[in-house]
Design a protein that fits this description.
By secondary structure, the protein is mostly helical. It folds into 2 domains: 103 residues, no CATH class; 99 residues, Arc Repressor Mutant, subunit A, CATH 1.10.10. The chain is built from 11 helices and 5 strands; from the N terminus they run αααββααααααβααββ. It has a 3-stranded antiparallel beta sheet with strand order 3-5-4. Strand 1 and strand 2 form a beta hairpin. The two termini are 55 Å apart. 13% of the residues are buried.
């Protein structure tokens, strides 16, 4: 069941006073008590006198206003600190408090109205977005290892592959092997890493049988680094570069 928030005009004496202050554009901290009292009494005189419960509240406020009006005609009183005592201060405090609660009630009423228009939708993320993985920070992944250092190892292994070629037999022709694909090498390194957990970058290159295999293996290592499937570490600058699974 919803909460009913309703404030009718002049619901009480404070509501009437606040209306008169706003209507006359009066500073609430400096109420002209004579003018406000006269207007307040005019309204009370027009009220239905049959409901004593309601009229009694307004009459009490009327008596309070007349009392304040009378005290303002007397010489000013001072407090213990020597400051002037304003007979209106207690009434001002009540009006400010009432005004605050009145505005709060309006805010609650607005929220209730907006809540009736609110719709809830279950979160739905496209499959393409759900599968997205942020790009890997290669600088963070490599840490103290540089691509330049990896390139040096790669080139040295390539030279060794060239040294293995028999110069005499190279001219007799060769048997072409099946083309080496990058996806195959990526799968190969994944399986190898799953068994070894940590292994030498140089050794994995040296295990390859041809120059082309070395090149494709090197590319496969770079690709797995890029997608964050393997880590590259080097404890000291001249130590072997090690590969481990993430």
């Amino acid at each position: 069941m919803g909460i009913l928030v309703k404030l009718q005009a002049f619901e009480g004496p404070l509501d009437l006073l606040l209306h008169l202050i706003e209507k006359n554009k009066i500073d609430i901290y400096d109420i002209p008590i004579v003018e406000i009292t006269d207007q307040y009494l005019e309204y009370v005189n027009t009220m239905d006198k049959t409901d004593l419960n309601i009229i009694s509240e307004f009459l009490v406020m009327a008596a309070t206003l007349i009392d304040i009006k009378s005290r303002m005609l007397l010489p000013k009183q001072v407090d213990e600190d020597g400051n002037d005592i304003d007979p209106r201060q207690e009434l001002v405090n009540k009006l400010i408090e009432y005004k605050l609660y009145k505005y709060m009630s309006h805010e609650l009423a607005d929220k209730q109205n907006y809540a009736n228009k609110a719709l809830y939708k279950q979160p739905s993320i496209p499959k393409e977005v759900a599968k997205y993985e942020p790009p890997v920070d290669l600088d963070k992944l490599l840490k103290d290892v540089s691509l330049e250092r990896m390139a040096i190892v790669f080139e040295s292994v390539l030279r060794r592959q060239e040294d293995k070629i028999d110069k005499m037999r190279a001219g007799f022709g060769k048997i072409e092997k099946e083309e080496i694909s990058l996806p195959d090498k990526i799968t190969y390194i994944k399986k190898y890493a799953g068994k070894q957990k940590k292994f030498s970058f140089r050794q994995i290159l040296e295990k390859q049988e041809s120059k082309m295999e070395v090149i494709v293996t090197f590319l496969a290592v770079l690709e797995l680094m890029k997608v964050g499937k393997i880590n590259i570490v080097q404890d000291h600058i001249f130590d072997d570069i090690l590969i481990s699974t993430t």
